[in-house]
Amino acid sequence: MSAPAISVRGLDHAFGQDEARRQVLFGLDLDIAAGELVVLLGASGSGKTTLLTLLGCLREVQAGSVRVLGQELNGATEATRIAVRRRLGFIFQAHNLHESLTARQNVLMGLEVHGRVLRAAEAAAHVLSLLGLGDRLDYLPAKLSGGQKQRVAVARALVGNPDIVFADEPTAALDRDSGRVVVELLRGLGRARGTTTLMVTHDTRILELADRILRMEDGRILAG
User: Fold this and answer.
1) Check whether domain 35-60+87-223 has CATH 3.40.50.300, yes or no
2) How many CA atoms lie within 13 A of 174 on its CB side?
3) Domain extents for the chain?
4) 222 to 37, 52, 143, 215, 217: CA distances (angstroms)
């Protein structure tokens, strides 16, 4: 049996110091298999985004074990975290596009992060076309709708063929059909090449597409 893409044991996390210290994660245990699409539900403030940032090497692990793609992150050097991060894709609710770059150029930035430039323009055009933006390749963000901008951000995260995708409310700005296209694409990548997805969402329209649904409350995982 292959090792999980993500394995967490006894994960605690807190913000602040001394009297201002506030613990937000409590003894989390979690395994996510390669290729699995897992949805994480929970109220605002339950710890979902904090967990994503720790797994995505965007924060340092304070206590417990976090293994991502076989690499232990607790005590890892910054160089090690950067190396792992290059194998990850990130989709956030805010699209964070560069307004002076076209849709294709914004997606190309995702390839630069991964250090992959072979046939880059073709790869960018291909993934944008999969998301229904084949006729918007050379549009600036100002000429795109909110949903189209979010799909560009999704394309930017996926163009480098990451091993794991972390998605924080990726369909919040999308209509039902566009949101389903995004999640079906993520699920398809899991089936075809073993891409793992951990998605935070409040979008009940796409829950049926998940392989597994987890729920968080007050910094703890309740069920999975």
Assistant:
1) yes
2) 30
3) 35-60+87-223
4) 18, 17, 43, 5, 7
The DSSP-derived string for the chain is -PPPSEEEEEEEEEES-GGG-EEEEEEEEEEE-TT-EEEEE--TTSSHHHHHHHHTTSS---EEEEEETTEE-TT--HHHHHHHHTTEEEE-SS----TTS-HHHHHHHHHHHHT--TTHHHHHHHHHHHTT-TT-TT--GGGS-HHHHHHHHHHHHHTT--SEEEEESTTTTS-HHHHHHHHHHHHHHHHHH--EEEEE---GGGGGG-SEEEEEETTEEEE-
Question: Token pair for residue 132?
Answer: 């229904």
| pLDDT (mean) for 176-197 | 87
Residue 154: name the closest of 182, 121, 116, 123 by CA. Answer: 182
pLDDT tens digits, one per residue of 29-44 = 999 999 999 999 988 8
Q: What is the CA radius of gyration of the chain?
A: 17
Instruction: Specify the pTM.
Output: 0.87
Distance from C-alpha of 166 to C-alpha of 162, rounded to nearest angstrom: 10
